[in-house]
Amino acid sequence: MSDESRDLIEEFDARYRIGEEPVMLRIERAVTGSDYGATSYTTRGQADRLADLLDLAPGKRLLDFGSGAGWPGIHLARSTGCDVVLTDLPLEGLRTANRRMRDDGVRGTVIAATAASLPLQDQRFDAATSSDVLC
Ligand SMILES: C[S@@+](CC[C@H](N)C(=O)[O-])C[C@H]1O[C@@H](n2cnc3c(N)ncnc32)[C@H](O)[C@@H]1O
């Protein structure tokens, strides 16, 4: 892994840690309408539109890559009943996502891996989302 990638992971780890602070969650709720400790600009309204466009429903399998602390993948799984696989590299975000997934009663898997090479035998998904990753 390059020094640049390592620096980026550290930077996001710090951002996911701060994102759990009550004041940050209050700001997030006011700005985007959600409280997942997100570092992207996807609003709740936009995420709900994604659920419709992707036709998410129980029995479908969603990949949310670059999922950070779980936004928007966990929300999409919770609101539609689909299964979700979350993948990212900063462990701080993945820990938060794992906790939130349990708290929200969502069926899914959290994986510490680059989306470029997923350590999964079954790599079939019905839909994929990413929020501010391909930039
Ligand atoms: C701007 S953050 C958005 C995180 C989350 N989707 C959100 O809305 O809060 C972008 C995330 O993409 C992740 N990322 C970048 N390249 C990745 C890759 N190849 N595989 C998985 N995650 C990646 C970063 O580690 C970072 O957590």
How would you describe this structure to a colleague?
The structure is a single chain. The protein has helices spanning 3-19, 22-32, 44-53, 73-80, 91-103; strands spanning 61-65, 83-88, 108-112, 127-129. It contains five helices and four strands. A four-stranded parallel sheet has the order 3-2-1-4, covered by helices on one side. The protein has a single domain (3-129), classed as 3-Layer(aba) Sandwich (Rossmann fold). Helix 1 (3-19) packs parallel to helix 5 and helix 3 crosses helix 4 (73-80). The two termini are 19 Å apart. It is α/β, with parallel strands linked by helices and 135 residues long.
Please identify which CATH superfamily we are dealing with: Vaccinia Virus protein VP39
Radius of gyration, in angstroms, nearest whole number:
14 Å
Q: Runs with pLDDT <50, length 5+?
A: none
Main β-sheet description: 4 strands, parallel
Query: How much helix, percentage-wise, in residues?
Result: 40-55%
Oligomeric composition of the shown chains: single chain
Query: What count of domains describes the coordinates?
Result: 1
Structural class: alpha/beta
- Overall geometric form: globular
Tags for this model:
single chain; alpha/beta; 5 helices; 44% helix; globular; binds S-adenosylmethionine
Summarize the structure.
The chain is an alpha/beta fold. The chain has five helices and four strands; from the N terminus they run H-H-H-E-H-E-H-E-E.
Task: List the SSEs and their pairings.
Layout: H1 3-19, H2 22-32, H3 44-53, E1 61-65, H4 73-80, E2 83-88, H5 91-103, E3 108-112, E4 127-129
Parallel strand pairs: 1-2, 1-4, 2-3
